[in-house]
Amino acid sequence: MASNEGASLPDSRSPDLGLSHPTRDEQIIIWSDTSASWIDSLTLPLYLKESLFLTGVPLAKNEGMTAWILVDKKFAPDQRQIFCSCESFRKRSLISDADGNVSDHIVHGIASVFCSPKLRGHAYPVRMMQELAKTLYTWQTDNLKCVGSILYSDIGQDYYAKLGWHPNISNSHFEFKPILIPKPIMVKDILVSGVEALCARDEALIRKAMAIPSKGTDRRMTIIPDLDHMAWHFAKEHFTCEYLFEKSPQTKGAIVGSPGKQIWAVWTHRYYGRPDAEVTNNVLYILRLVMERDETASRLPLDAEKKLVGKDFDEQVGYMKAVLRAAQAEAAEWKLDVIKLWDPTPLVQDMVTKSGIECKMVQREADSIASGLWYTSSSQADGPAPLWLNNEHYAWL
Tens digit of pLDDT for each residue in 262-303? Predict the structure, then answer.
């Protein structure tokens, strides 16, 4: 433990405090402290092993992930107290303006914000987040402008909003129950080898949707659902499942239909507790749902009613039902308790409702609140929020 632990605690506004990066030994201290909150179904040794493992997987490796700590700058590494900590992930994103001009940018995802219980009540996380807001604007932008940062609050909507990260206008999801049934014949499994090509097709569809001029909507933003995001979730899934079951899921999603009319879902298995525990809340998260014929995916008010009709609609409803039935079968096979589909488009909502599959819509108020801080052209962290497209689980970390 740091040698200055017994010293009196500094004021969070002290000029001596600042951001730094933890050493290997300091990182182990952080992971040990955070285990009580995020150990999920693992043991402590395995949680420490997983934490190290996840620093070397896509999205995190090659400095894609940065670990941050708030410390007293007067003390040397490994001789300083860690007042709080977090991580940031560099994410590829797109911005489009009202004329449909699409440009590539960086959005940083902030995760794992943590302050030890014995240090809470001193506003150290407030100071850390204030410093991050200033620092991330120019952090590892790879010659691309950083337009903002996002996080997912598990402590409600108010705390981070006061610091500049305001809740997205929508934080909703569908929930479905697992059912032990055969997967529909028309559905094809998505294997890991097929995910990269689907991500590329998805990105092309997104760029096309964002290029539509948007009267009344000045800016739209999306985190690109690329292979790195999917692979991070797959890596976490693999580590946990190998421990729990001594095997890992091979099916990464389901796809149905012919090109141009396809619907597909990419998913991940998340175990917050052991499946044999008395009470569990383990989830099959649909990381990304893609419907090639969904014009409402633009999220523009003028496109909200551009829904299919007649045989076209019935065909797509059948495809949607098949993909969701495959997800229900997958969840049941892997002893998960619920399937969650975040941020469905207006057309997807309509089709799910008409599919006959039992479900409920949940408005998240306390946990996984997608929130964003947006920069102005002068790097001030008080810019207006863009319309966030595809606020789906792939972007959560």
Answer: 999 999 999 999 999 888 899 999 999 999 999 999 888 878
Q: Is it the case that residue 212 has pLDDT exceeding 80?
A: yes
pTM given for the model: 0.96
pLDDT tens sequence across 76-121: 999 999 999 999 999 999 999 999 999 999 999 999 999 999 999 9
Q: 3-state secondary structure string, the chain?
A: CCCCCCCCCCCCCCCCEEEECCCHHHHHHHHHHHHHHHCCCCCHHHHHHHHHHHHHCCCCCCCCEEEEEEEECCCCCCCCCCCEEEEEEEEEEEEEECCCCEEEEEEEEEEEEECCHHHCCCCHHHHHHHHHHHHHHHCCCCCCCEEEEEEEECCCCHHHHCCCCEECCCCEEEEECCCCCCCCCCCEEEEHHHHHHHHHHHHHHHHHHHCCCCCCCCEEEEECCCHHHHHHHHHHHHHHHHHHHCCCCCEEEEEECCCCCCEEEEEEEECCCCCCCCCCCCEEEEEEEEECCCHHHHCCHHHCCCCCCHHHHHHHHHHHHHHHHHHHHHHHHCCCCEEEEECCCHHHHHHHHHHCCCEEEEECCCCCEEEEEECCCCCCCCCCCCEEECCCHHHCC
